[in-house]
Amino acid sequence: MFVGTGYSYLQEYVIHAAQAVVRQSWTDVVGLGRMVLSYPDLPADSLAGQSLTRTKICRTFSDCTTAPRHGLRSGCYPLDDFYKSLQPDAAGMKAIKKSEHDASSNS
Ligand code: SF4
Fold first, then answer.
1. 38 pocket-lining for ligand 1 (C-beta < 6 Å)
2. Which mutation among 34, 57, 70, 80 tests ligand 1's pocket best, with the greatest number of atoms within 8 A of CB?
3. Going by CA atoms, what residue is nearest to atom 8 of ligand 1?
4. pLDDT tens, 91-100?
5. How would DSSP label each residue in the chain?
6. Which domain holds residue 46?
7. At a CB cut-off of 8 Å and minimum separation 6, what does 50 contact?
8. 3 pairs with which residues across the strands?
9. pTM above 0.70?
């Protein structure tokens, strides 16, 4: 059994790409990682033939991986209202991003 990974990076094309690679037997299934944090209903919406909700599609900002590297809870801080208001983690993420932005501006 092979599970394809990395497909969240394809954003709104993820469903089409997943269908194609499974159909061609390039992989047995396509796993969704970070996309499920921002849009847990994406597989259900797709299987129901509904248009995807663009505002929920993971845009690969990587806050969900940056947060736990700094001891904060993982979650989709940019797109999920729950994490946007989750304190003190949301404030911590904002401070981390400002620090990273300032560091890159000064290099
Ligand atoms: S934080 Fe960024 S990478 Fe992570 S799920 Fe949300 S949009 Fe995607």
1. yes
2. 34
3. 58
4. 999 999 999 9
5. --EE--GGGGGGGHHHHHHHHHHTTS-SEE--SHHHHH-TTHHHHHHTTPPP-GGGS-----HHHHHHHTTSPPS-TTT-HHHHT-TTHHHHHHHHHHHHHHHHHT-
6. 3-56
7. none
8. 29
9. yes
Six-digit token string for 59? 């845009």
Asked if residue 44 and residue 89 are part of one domain, the reply reads no
How far is the first Cα of the chain from the last one, in angstroms, to the nearest whole number?
A: 45
Whether residue 69 has pLDDT greater than 90: yes
**Last residue within a domain, chosen from 16, 36, 56:** 56
25 and 46 housed in the same domain: yes
51 and 67 inside one domain: no
